[in-house]
Records
---
Amino acid sequence: MRPVAALFGQRARLRWLHLILGGALFMPFWMVGSLVVAPLLDGGGIFTGSLGVQWGAYAAGLPLAAVTALFPLARPMSVAAARALCGVPADRFADGPARGRAAKARTAGWFSLHLGCGALVSGATLALPPFAVSVMALPFSPALRESELGRLWGLDRPGWIWAGLPAGLLMLLTLAAVAAAAGALLARQAPRLLGPSPADRLAAAERRAAEAESRNRLARELHDSVGHALSAVTLQAGAARRVLDGDGADLEFVREALTAIEETTRRTVGELDWVLGLLRDEGQAAAAGPGPGLDALEALVRGAGPRVALTVAGDLDPVSEALSREAYRIVQEGLTNAARHAGGEPVAVRLDARTEELEITMENPLPERPPVARPHGGRGLRGVGERARLLGGTVEAGPVDGVWRLAVRIPR
């Protein structure tokens, strides 16, 4: 069964179809070659029956096909056909137009090989089966046996009358074997000639890095906006509950806490819409705005509670949009970190824009009891470091003289 599958199985049939496609693509080049060769050899037209003209047109058409393969669309079209019909794993092919001389030369080599082999197999596929059927019909037709074909095969002699059956069958099997061998040759050469070059691999690696950075950015945005909102709301709600549970409830404090919860949730819904816009469509999110920046910093601090103090030195207006957005997120994550781990201690936030660097410093006294750490650690400070490094800045975080300090410096 294996020999039969190798000659007539689905893979063999698809590769045969791929070769016939190559023969069809070669026809325009063959006709142009005939226009050039026919007048030089016998002065006949392009449809002359001379074998010299046919082979001359074939030889002249192959270089024309190779030149055509230098155009940008040649490799994507060849890769699409080979992926569908050659039975080669899709990941072994390059994507996009060929870049560089070596890649273009390999594409030209593949195009010439595909069209050259395809033209020969297509011609044999068109001509040989009718001839083989005629040979196989010779024993059953006296007229055919007495024709020139019968005399050529010697079937007009006694004892040879049935020789046409195996001869015609052998022709068909030979055609199938040649088509299978040519298809296997193309399948072996496809990854080498249409596979990724070093430039293609570098471009693919850059695309993967850009996609990973985009995913990391979305993760940071979700973590900072939603995480901060939940921490701030939890802190304010807990404080309001404790005041209501105590003697002589301070209704004004509870009102301020509820107002802070309302502002925080309303602001976070807008930020969440912006982040979801990034997931749906980068252009739509960009049209909706770049996200919150330092102009929204006072509202952020106000929503974090009365025990957070903000100090700004210098003018923040000249700060670029990208730096303003990242600085806002850094402060937001610092406040989230303090809400989770500072145990209600006061938090001091300072921004200094008087030098060539924007300095962000956040400090809070260390609580008497160490905070309960999450089993696998948090992602907040890691995200702060990623944001700062993307803009060429530095981050320092840790306990200093009984105070937890987060210091970020980013060039303006």
---
Amino acid sequence: MADQAFVTLATNESYARGAMVLGKSLRNHNTTKKLVALVGPHVSEPCQSVLKRIFDEVRVVDVLDSGDTAHLAMMKRPDLGVTFTKLHCWTLTHYSKCVFMDADTLVLSNIDELLEREELSAAPDPGWPDCFNSGVFVFSPSNETYAKLLQHCTEHGSFDGGDQGVLNSFFNTWATADISKHLPFIYNLSSIAIYTYLPAFKQYGGNAKVVHFLGKTKPWSYTFDPKAKQISGSVHEATAHPTFLLDWWTLYSSAVVPLLQEQYGDQPFHSGCVEGESSPFAEALGPQLSSEERKQKWEQGQADYMGMDSFDNIKRKLDTFLK
């Protein structure tokens, strides 16, 4: 189906790299669909060039300078700038159906079957399962829907300040109307949800098809030693399962960094790949936290999974308790 596509959005350089990894992961798992990247005007030429090597279509979208209806809506609701940019995906009317995927997602197996679903299909949000998470959703491009979404934005705003609030209030029957529009959680496995229900992750996590690196700390926030296969960064900010983080960095360092190096040439750029410069991720444990501090970290989705809150430690505690 040449008129079906996977669509992502990169508003800046960091998210552009996320989009590159997402695109590569879709290609590696042999998608037969088109790949589209919407990019903000601040994404550099070298990054756009790399995106063009991976995606079938790269389109610059800028709600501030555009002459379209989003520009008028922006005047009334400047707080929703990035949201308006994301809603541009409905203007891709040369496609009959698409799957939107945030640039902080990673595909773990072929997901072309998602295009058999109808608008608006999405997985539940782990924070409030009667809302869907807008990191992965199936939609049908339509100028009419686009206009209605913009009008909805200007009249009602967003209850969470972003696109998820807008889309949930617009497609407000998702929770109750049609179970076939509820994507299984394996199509949008939230990395911060893993530690809130560990037994379920242990039971079903192996079937995951898409992992979503939710939270403030993204994969590209870390550094990586490709030789030692070690990730460095603040463990207490970590919100992702180490295996998935390693998958992301392995793909980025092997398939994306060479393309970036080619485009940047002699110009310096920070790839995030360093050799032997920083301590291994597993050793980057900070000072011991109090029980109250640990509880707060858990509630914020920031479990110290490489240390105190590792699965083995939790299992050991549970086994002791049950005995």
---
Amino acid sequence: MPEIKHSFTRQRKYMFFLLSFFVLGWGFTSYQSIFLGLILGTALSFFNLWLIVRKTIQFGKAVENGEKVRSLGTVSRMASAAFAVIIALEYPEHFHLISVVLGLMTSYIVIMIDFFLQSFHIRRKREER
């Protein structure tokens, strides 16, 4: 399981970078509702990323020990996404709904970009040998 922990460490850095960028956008532009929606969606997306990593590690340990395997937390991740949408619908003057939804997808985009960067890095190291 060290690979997933290393991946999460890299992805956490990317997520914090994006969140800091969104906070700067919220503070220094006139598109405050859009950036606030991105902040809300990305924060909950980051929570979902942390949750899936934690559940995956627990899943791996359960399989190694031959224990009964539980869920990977799909319901709780969906509930947090629904929570973000409810907040955006309740306070449309503060949160842009489409930005919240885009923010919720941020962790998946970060995972894909991280995968491609790592694949490229590994391929380049193989070619150097």
